[in-house]
Amino acid sequence: MIRPGDRERLEAIASALSIGRAERHVFVCAMGRRPRCASAEAGERTWRHLKKRLKELGLDSPPPAWRGEPLAELPDTPAGAGRVLRTKVDCLRVCEQGPIVVVYPEGVWYRGVDEQVMERIITEHLLEGRPVGEHVFAVAPLRG
């Protein structure tokens, strides 16, 4: 059941996270219950590195501190200034040579993404706009 204010809460969270203003979205295969492409630990290390570096570089926006808390009234929440969204997923269905990472909207798919490769993806792809060619195995840009 949708309660009064539910939509406004989600709109405030989306604004704080820069949803709608982000330039790229990075998906990391890092939660596999039965990992086949890389160990769960390897995926988690890659994810933690991405998360840490995006924060250090000011490329992501944190959610509002009140998210998940019941409130009678929404506090003013500033819009996020981040340019990159990040999502940790269970499986990207490739199941080989992982951890697997995909960057949208370009649709660049990466293989074997450890912390060093993730650093290159952040520096070369996210900041400079150049995919890290030797780790790319597919490109399927979103069409709008």
Question: Would you write up a description of this structure?
Answer:
By secondary structure, the protein is of the alpha+beta class. The protein has a single domain (23-67, 82-139), classed as Glutaredoxin (3-Layer(aba) Sandwich). 28% of the residues lie in helices and 16% in strands. The protein contains 3 helices and 5 strands. Strands 2-1-3-4-5 form a 5-stranded mixed sheet, with helices on one face. The longest helix is centred in the middle third of the chain and has 17 residues, at 40-56. It is globular and about 50 Å long. The model has no long low-confidence stretch (mean pLDDT 91).
Describe what is shown at a glance:
By secondary structure, the protein is of the alpha+beta class. Helices cover 28% and strands 16% of the residues. The model has no long low-confidence stretch (mean pLDDT 91).
